[in-house]
Structure formats: C-alpha cells, structure tokens
Write a structure and sequence with these properties.
about 725 residues, alpha+beta, Ubiquitin-like (UB roll), 3 domains, five-stranded mixed β-sheet, about 15% strand, disordered C terminus
C-alpha cells in the first residue's frame, strides 16, 4: 500500500510517498523514513496521524487513510528553528552586535537550543546543544565544511589548497590530511620543544624594560607578537626578532598576514566581479597575497635542504629528523614515494602559520587575563611550577610540560570560560532533521556555538564560576568530550590538527612567564572583546609584568623540613634551639618586604629565632658580600634579585618557615675587614649552635647552584 509521509507544516512541509508493503517490521519502515527525511538521530523518529494520534505498529500504518506525519518529538511537528524578527536590510544585526556572545546566550534562553538569525541577508543557524553539535561536526552524508559557500564565516579566507581553509570535498583535502597531521603530532612537538622554550624566553628583555619603567602594556599586542614569533619558529625555523626592543613592530610576513586577512574580509563583502578589477582593494589583495606567499616560500627554502634524505610517513620517528614543520613537509613521502605538491605545501604552510598565531595569540591573552582576573590562580600555578623543579634555567620536555595538573586544569577552564573560537561552522548537504525536531534546509550554514555550550547551565555546575578544580582528575574532561559539551578544538575529521602545537605553546609560555613575572591588571576600563574578528580576543586588556625576586619553596622540600623539625622537637638534645636565643651581632631581616632584606646591627642580648646558611661560596659576586663600601646600603636595603641563588633560596625557606631572621656569613660579617673578622670568627660556632636550624646547600658547588634539587628517588630521614 502506498502511504504519504510528511514532515513540517505549510511552506516547511516535505513529503514522500512510500510503498509500505515492502516492509516486514515497523523498525524497517522507520529506518527507511529516517534515510528519506535525513534524520540525524534515527532513534528519535516517531509516527503520528490526525485520525489515530500516535502510531506504534506497522499494521496501523498500512491501514491509515490519512497522511502520516513523521516527528522527532512526541508532541511537536518538525519545524525551522525559531529566531528574532528582523529589520529591513539589516535583519537581526542589532540583535547580535556589538556583544555577539552575550546576545547568542540571550537568544538561546529565549528561543531554545537552536536559533535562526539573518544578518545583512545571510542566514545562519546556531546551537548551544552538544547533542546537536556532535552531528554537525561529523563529516558525512548530512554535514560538511564548505568554505567556498559565501555564507560560511570563513569564506573570505577560503584557500582551497590548504587543510584548514579548504572544502572537505576539495581535491587538496585528502592529500593535505595525509601529510599535515604527522607534521604536528605529539612526537613532532616533543622534538621541537627546546625551540619553543627558547623562543618563549625571547620576550624577557622587553618585559624587563617595561617593568623598570613601570609601564603597562596591551596584552593582545604583546601575545600577538609572541605567538607569531613562536609559530614562525616552529613552522619555518626562523626568528622574526619581535623583541629586539619594546617598540619593535611585527615583522614583514606578519604585517602581510594582517593586510591579507583584512583585504580578504573586505573583498568578501563585495560582488565577485569587484575583486577582479585591475585597481582598488581587489588588486591590493592580489598584490599582498603574492608578497605573503613569496615571503613564506623564501622561509621554506631557507629551512630546507634539497639534498636531504626523504622522510617516510610510515616511520613514526621520521619527524625527529626534521628541523621544523616545513622541513618535514618538504621531505615527507607516502608509501608510494609521493610528496606533497609544492603549491599545496606552500598553501598549507601559509595557513598553518596564520591560523596558528591568530588563535594562540588570543588564547594567550585570555590566559593572562585569567591570571589577573581570578584571584589565587597565579599563586597556585607558580607553586606548581616550582614544585616541578623550575629554576629559571630548566629545559622542559614535552611530557614534563603536560605533567603539571593544575596548569592543565587552568588552561581547560580558561578555554571553557574565554573560548577564542566561535566560528566552527558546517554546511548541510541536504535537508536535515536535527534532535529536537529542527529542520535545517539544504545548503544552510550551522554553527556550533562553543562559548554558549561551555556556559550552558544544563551541562555545567555553576558555569559562570571560574573553577579550574572542576577538571582535576580528568574525569570531567573525558565525560564532557564524550557528550560533545567540551570540544575547544572541534572534533571529527575537520577538528583542529594544530591542537598539539597550540597546547604546548600556551603551556610553555605560561610556565616561563609565571615563573619570571607577577602579572597585574592595569586596564583603564572594563575589558571588551572584538565581536567581528576571526577569533574572540580582548582588545583593551592592559597588564603590568613585575619581575619576581623571590619564589615559594617547593612544597615537598618545605613539608620535609617541617616534618624533620617536628621529629627534632621530640628529642631532648634538640629542644633548646626552639626557644629564643641571643641573636648574632648582625642578622638579615627577611620578613618586611617581598623584594628586599636589610642588615641592621643587633642590640646586645636581643633575643630571637634565626636560621643559618651553610654553603660553598665559589666565586662569590660582590652583590653577595657585605664590605665597608656597601655596609651602609645593606643596613637600609639589599635587593634580593641581585643576590646569588643560594642566598635567594635561603631567604625563601626562612620566610616559608615563618622565621624573621637569617644569618649568612658573607653578608653578616664584613668582608675584607680583618678587625671585624677577628671579632666575629670565634663566635661562628655559637652562631650555628643557637640557630633554629641550618640550611645546608650541599648540592651546590658555588653560590649560584641554589638550595633545591629535583630527585628521582625517595628520601628517608
């Protein structure tokens, strides 16, 4: 029997006539209907008729005289997603801008998890529902990525030879997808980690100058230069020299990237024929594109050797022989011995650089914002970095960077609350019925709105609270990823291939910056973001970076020391030093200032509790000694940052134990003064004997080795 099945009503109605006698079960019929009407969730399909209501058997279908309605929910017909009524010409523009993220949340709250907006004639569908988003991000019969579509948010930067910007159906996609991901694999990133750390540290001289002059800086401008310098080094192995001076402008290739994106955006808003004119912005775009690609090609040529051995993609360790990502792409060969064609290689290199620093510069800016906006996190992060052996000189490995649990949680929470990505769009290959009964017409653009999903109260506990601890243990990340609630790098075949590079970059930069500097918010007004840029970036966030002069002691070391003190207190022979003793003639006062100590003259018989430092001097620098020339200055103030590492660490330990005074022979005895030495030297036995405890820098061969060491064995008292 031929039965008419339909979805929707009125202009949205679609129908199919199906011969039902060919089916033996209702499930077989439903499966066929799900294919005919393109149901994303086939299990949600329901049948209904006006005469019988809910239809639950095949016999009822065959005997039904009325057309049978196909639904995705129990009570509602399938419909186009709702949305606000538009104005002439501009549509919903003023419903969305200038606060696009906030307004999307408002529209979701009003209309539900799927909304339709029309902005200047362009129709876009948005969702904050992770169940719907999971179907969008799957490449298949229902959805695809088609940047060549003028409605796609990335249409203006549609480069059909590059993995990130091409259509999924582009001939270049399959080939690019074969070569580019191995070039950015975790193993490859581990190989390039030393280069990243070195480049991250290149910004220190500029931050030091800003600190010395007590100047704040625009954080995005800073992270833009830093991220582009790091990405350029990782991809093509070059140094852009962005931090030669405070006012050094971005290098030529980066300036060309900026012009290229701006002109592509402007030309995308005009008719196609306009871009082909021999003058105007279309001509400018062609000129800038030619210059940009030439600069990147020049960098590729400089980092590769035409005579170098090819690198087989079948060898998982092949990337370890490359000097940078572009070098690997030039030398890589597939199982047939074929290489990436030069034009596709160049396009992928250009786009990887541009997409890489554009996204990571915004992410770094938000991470620095989170450090200053949410109290306590900067201190926790510093403590974890110190606990894992940071000393300002340590070379971090890829695995060590990713082994810091709070750092990982802090990055995840910042990506959740301040996601830089919000343009993850897909195109409907056909009319599609999404969960909830939403009909998406063929060719439509649908955006999974990550920022709104990350703040959806239906899926997060207190979503507006910044709480890195919610990620501790890893279970939440796994759970939310499975549900599609948390996918900051998208998912599926078109997920971000640069996620290993991006995560290593932001974590390495945070480790280096937080260890060396304390960041303070210096913004003159409330921080706002750019709603029309490719990614979400804070445009008016200013910060001050203060050079650290002291660091917390590693918790394991301090905990061990405290344990030993408690054990010692139980011993009769050790009891007396824990009462106040007469102070030495001079002791350092360490508890009055974070950045300075001082060396006053103790009054005779003045009682107190103090620590001693026992260490090997080596070639002790003049800053680490008290002489007649600097005695008066030392009485008033000694800058901790100028002291050797042994002395700095001893000051930290003294503070962490809550002790006010510290005795160090090099500072508390006037050097090169025979009379003072003759008087103080005989007292040294008593000085050490009466100390609360003595810090022995036994692992340091000189004054610069420091008091801490990372050990791989268990120490027992």
């Amino acid at each position: 029997m031929l039965v008419q099945f339909f979805i929707g009503e009125g202009a949205e109605k679609r129908q199919h006539d199906i011969e039902t006698s060919a089916f033996e079960t209702l499930d077989q019929l439903k499966s066929s209907l799900a294919s005919n009407f393109a149901f994303a969730d086939r299990e949600s399909l329901r049948l209904h008729s006006n005469g019988r209501g809910k239809i639950s058997t095949l016999e009822d279908v065959k005997s039904c005289k009325d057309p049978v309605e196909v639904r995705a929910t129990e009570y509602d017909s399938i419909r186009i997603p709702p949305g606000p009524r538009g104005l002439p010409v501009v549509g919903n523009h003023y419903e969305i801008y200038p606060d696009a993220l906030g307004n999307y949340d408002r529209l979701f709250a009003r209309y539900g998890p799927m909304i339709k907006t029309v902005n200047m004639g362009t129709t876009i569908y948005h969702t904050n529902d992770p169940e719907i988003a999971r179907y969008l991000l799957r490449e298949g019969d229902l959805f695809t990525k088609r940047t060549s579509d003028p409605s796609h948010p990335l249409h203006y930067m549609s480069v059909q030879d590059a993995l990130f910007t091409c259509d999924s159906d582009s001939p270049a996609f399959a080939m690019s997808h074969k070569f580019v991901p191995p070039a950015l694999s975790p193993r490859a990133m581990a190989h390039y980690t030393p280069h990243m750390q070195e480049t991250a540290r290149s910004c220190f001289p500029v931050l030091d100058q800003l600190d010395e002059k007590d100047l704040a800086f625009n954080v995005y401008h800073f992270t833009f230069k830093l991220a582009s310098q790091i990405i350029w080094r990782m991809i093509v192995g070059g140094d852009l020299g962005h931090f030669k001076a405070v006012n050094t402008p971005p290098a030529l290739p980066i300036r060309l990237f900026g012009q290229y994106l701006r002109l592509m955006k402007r030309n995308s808003l005009r008719p196609k024929w306009y871009g082909k004119l021999p003058f105007g912005e279309g001509a400018q775009l062609r000129s800038v594109e030619k210059q940009l690609f030439a600069e990147v090609q020049k960098a590729i040529d400089a980092c590769t050797d035409a005579e170098a051995d090819p690198l087989p993609l079948t060898d998982p360790k092949a990337s370890l022989q490359a000097s940078c990502v572009a070098d690997f792409l030039c030398r890589a060969r597939d199982s047939k011995g074929e290489r990436l064609p030069p034009d596709i290689l160049l396009a992928n290199t250009v786009v990887t650089i541009g997409a890489g620093f554009t996204t990571s510069s915004s992410m770094l800016a938000w991470l620095l914002y989170a450090l200053t906006a949410y109290p306590g996190n900067q201190e926790r992060l510093l403590q974890e970095i110190v606990d894992h052996g940071a000393d300002g000189k340590r070379a971090w490995t890829y695995d060590e960077v990713h082994a810091l649990p709070f750092l990982d949680c802090f990055v995840k929470e910042t990506q959740r609350v301040h996601s830089p990505s919000f343009q993850t769009a897909r195109n409907a290959r056909q009319d599609v019925v999404l969960p909830g009964g939403y009909l998406i017409p063929k060719g439509s653009v649908v955006i999974a709105c990550f920022p709104s999903m990350h703040m959806n109260p239906a899926h997060w506990d207190n979503p507006h609270r910044f709480d890195p601890d919610r990620w501790m243990g890893g279970e939440l990340a796994r759970k939310q990823a499975r549900k599609g609630v948390y996918t900051p790098f998208a998912a599926g075949r078109r997920g971000c291939v640069g996620l290993n590079l991006a995560l290593l970059e932001v974590k390495m930069v945070l480790i280096e910056l937080v260890y060396q500097y304390h960041f303070e918010d210096s913004s003159p007004e409330a921080v706002v973001y750019d709603p029309e840029f490719l990614v979400t970036r804070p445009v008016n966030f200013y910060a001050s970076a203060r050079r650290r002069t002291s660091w917390p002691a590693p918790r394991a070391s301090i905990d061990w020391i405290k344990t030993q003190i408690e054990i010692c207190k139980e011993k009769d022979l050790c009891w007396s030093p824990f009462f106040e003793q007469r102070l030495p003639s001079r002791v350092l006062v360490v508890g009055e200032s974070e950045t300075h100590v001082r060396l006053p003259l103790s009054e005779t018989e003045q009682p107190g509790v103090y620590l001693c430092l026992s260490h090997c001097w080596g070639q002790l620098p003049s800053e680490g000694k008290t002489t007649r020339d600097n005695l008066q200055q030392h009485k008033d103030s000694i800058l901790i940052a100028k002291l050797p590492k042994n002395l700095q660490d001893a000051i930290d330990i003294t503070r962490w134990l809550g002790v006010r005074y510290l005795w160090i022979d090099a500072l508390c005895i006037i050097q090169e003064d025979e009379e003072h030495w003759a008087r103080e030297a005989p007292q040294m036995v008593t000085v050490f004997e009466n100390a609360y405890l003595t810090i022995g820098a036994t692992a340091s061969s000189d004054s610069n080795g420091g008091c801490y060491r990372t050990v791989s064995r268990t120490c027992h008292s």
